[in-house]
Specification:
The chain has 21 helices and 21 strands. By secondary structure, it is an alpha/beta fold. It folds into 3 domains: 17-121, 2-Layer Sandwich (Beta-Lactamase); 132-288, Alpha-Beta Plaits; 310-554, EAL domain (TIM Barrel, Alpha-Beta Barrel). The strands form 4 sheets. An 8-stranded mixed barrel has the order 13-14-16-17-18-19-20-21, surrounded by 5 helices. A 5-stranded antiparallel sheet has the order 2-1-5-4-3. The protein is elongated, with a radius of gyration of 35 Å. The N and C termini lie far apart (102 Å). Residues 1-29 and 33-49 have low confidence and may be disordered. The protein binds ligand C2E and calcium ion (2 copies). Ligand C2E binds at residues 320, 336-337, 348-350, 353, 366, 369, 395, 397, 427, 457-458, 481, 515-517, 534-536, 541.
């Protein structure tokens, strides 16, 4: 209480010290001295600032009394501090400066000036809020999310949380097909559903156009995070009803755990985003594991190692049968690259093909794969004493189509192994037709001229401008695994597969369903009119000898 401190009543106009010119338009100035604590307060805008009555002064002195005293007792001549008065809802912020005045009768004195910063503070807070909020959904945006993760990291409870990156799959097509208004409407509904399956202390943020993120509180570690990922995906299963139509949205999820290493907040977000990229390729939720991802992340290391791998023969091909669904016979084998390092580590093509594409190593790698496939096919023919009866399907990267002379390479391999072009199917993805359509078309025509068949790989996942299909010399569509997996429990997927099949029929294209893992799926696909199938139900990718044995056994 002021009376306890011996504060005299403020006298309204009594600037005994010529101090005003020293100050930045203050709200209030107090000249205080303390020798057994006596204050002389000079009031300027005191009343306006709410300190005029004794309650106001009490509040002020309660906050600042100790610091005032400590300053007066110290030898300092000047001290600045921030002061907040009031409750959380209605608080005012002051910039306080204490300046020593000459002693009076041996008693130390100081001048305290207070500049009201409340309006600036409020602007800054609301600016900060605006800057960290996504205006469409009202969720925290990338900046806001970074701040929230930072808070958790600083808290130090590393085992207690995870960061999930949630990317909507193929969302850019929604905007392209339906206009951004519908896209916005959809994003809001997606946000609402995602939020609906989170617990109250989890935070959902929108970190990019079609990217969401979750700061998840964990009860029991990884399992908890995986379950939450499952719930988030489940939340999107029901189609969304927009004004004019309904649409399905799926998402890929990457997880970074707080317990992993001593990552900073930004690292954790990056790790989760890294994991989600991988998840897009593998088709399943991925947890960031520092070791695995370090290999992949360090471009340099994987690139150098891949270069050596190519030279040292660390790569080999595995072969997976593609079966005729009506007879069960093997029609062809898809050649799939495998990399086993000298340390015995198996690196998946899902990880090294993108690096090869980015670094240009895909050209020698693709040449090697094509040659190795040709060599193997010739070897099988030699064992069979005649045409072994299977074709070889080889993946050809869009990057290689752009950079390499594919037709010359193909011709050379045919000549080297004495094979005809019709023993090969070349698998291309839709991206080949986006990057350089003219060149792709030329190469395709040349390959077909030599007898090769062309298959459109991963059909349905890319840009799917169906009109172009008609114009391209394609023989076969491979329906992407993501439509086949889980199809029996998902009427939308059945509808998509049915649509692709009838489109293929109309265009006179043959179809292969990828990822058939059960007999039930096989039956359904046969019933829908699909001609070929590939998947673990028939065989996983196996080495050349095992593949030949399987061919002999199945096609006998
Ligand atoms: P892709 O061309 O779509 O190959 C099919 C992938 O699906 C293979 O993965 C195969 O192992 C997997 N798969 C087959 N049946 C099933 C199934 O029933 N269930 C599940 N869950 N998966 C199944 P893999 O071998 O990991 O290859 C991944 C991708 O790497 C390939 O996808 C292809 O895009 C690329 N790739 C592999 N080898 C080469 C290559 O020599 N050249 C190029 N350019 N790309 C390659
Ligand atoms: Ca393929
Ligand atoms: Ca495929």
């Amino acid at each position: 209480m002021p009376s306890d401190l011996g504060l005299p009543e403020p006298s309204e106009n009594d600037p005994r010290e010529p101090i005003l010119d020293l100050l930045p338009v203050p709200t209030a100035i107090i000249v205080a001295n303390a020798g057994g604590v006596v204050f002389e307060a000079v009031n300027l805008a005191f009343r306006a600032a709410g300190f005029a009555d004794s309650d106001g002064r009490a509040a002020l002195l309660h906050e600042i009394g100790d610091q005032l005293l400590s300053f007066l007792m110290s030898g300092d001549t000047r001290r600045r501090m921030a002061l907040r008065l009031g409750d959380a809802v209605d608080s005012r912020h002051y910039d306080v400066t204490l300046a020593r005045r000459p002693e009076s009768v041996g008693i130390p004195r100081c001048m305290m000036s207070m500049v009201d910063q409340t309006p600036e503070q409020r602007t800054e807070t609301s600016l900060r809020r605006e800057m960290s909020t996504d205006s469409l959904t009202g969720l925290p945006n990338r900046i806001g999310f970074g701040d929230l993760v930072e808070e958790r990291v600083v808290d130090g409870d590393r085992d207690g949380f995870a960061v999930l990156a949630v990317n909507l799959d193929r969302f850019s097509r929604v905007n392209a097909c339906m206009g951004s208004l519908s896209g916005d409407e959809l994003l809001i509904s997606v946000a609402r559903r995602l939020k609906g399956v989170l617990r109250s202390n989890d935070v959902l943020a929108r970190t990019g156009g079609d990217e969401f993120a979750v700061l998840l509180s964990l009860r029991d570690g990884t399992e908890d995070a995986l379950q939450a990922a499952g719930r988030l995906q489940q939340a999107l299963v029901q189609p969304f009803q927009l004004t004019d139509f309904s649409i399905r949205v799926e998402c890929s999820i990457g997880i970074a755990l707080g317990e992993d290493a001593d990552a900073e907040a930004e690292d954790m977000i990056r790790h989760a985003q890294f994991a989600v990229k991988r998840s897009k390729r593998t088709g399943q939720t991925e947890v960031y594991r520092p070791h695995l991802f370090d290999i992949v992340r360090s471009q340099f290391s994987i690139e150098t190692r891949l270069r050596h791998a190519l030279e040292d023969g660390q790569l080999h091909l595995a072969f997976q049968p593609i079966c005729d669904l009506s007879t069960g016979r093997i029609n062809s084998f898809e050649a799939l690259a495998r990399w086993t390092t000298p340390e015995g580590e198996n690196i998946s093509p899902v990880d090294f093909i993108p690096v090869a594409e980015e670094s240009g190593l895909i050209v020698p790698l693709g040449r090697w794969a094509m040659a190795e496939a040709g060599r193997t096919l010739a070897e099988w023919d030699r064992r069979a004493g005649t045409d072994c009866g299977a074709r070889m399907a080889v993946n050809l990267s869009a990057v290689q189509l752009q950079r390499d002379n594919v037709e010359a390479m193909f011709a050379a391999i045919l000549a080297q192994y004495g094979l005809t072009g019709d023993r090969f199917t070349i698998e291309l993805t839709e991206s080949a037709f986006i990057v350089d359509p003219d060149r792709t078309l030329c190469t395709m025509l040349a390959l077909k001229e030599m007898g090769a068949a062309i298959a459109m790989d991963d059909f349905g996942t890319g840009y799917s401008n169906l009109a172009y299909l008609q114009k391209l010399p394609i023989d076969k569509l491979k329906i992407d695994r993501s439509f086949i997996t889980g199809m029996l429990a998902d009427r939308d997927k059945v509808a998509i597969v049915r649509a692709i099949l009838s489109l293929a029929q109309a265009l006179g294209l043959r179809t292969t369903a990828e990822g058939i893992e059960t007999q039930e799926l096989e039956h359904t696909l046969v019933a829908l009119g699909c001609a070929f199938g590939q998947g673990y139900f028939y065989s996983r990718p196996i080495d050349a000898d095992a593949a030949y044995a399987l061919l002999v056994a199945r096609n006998a």
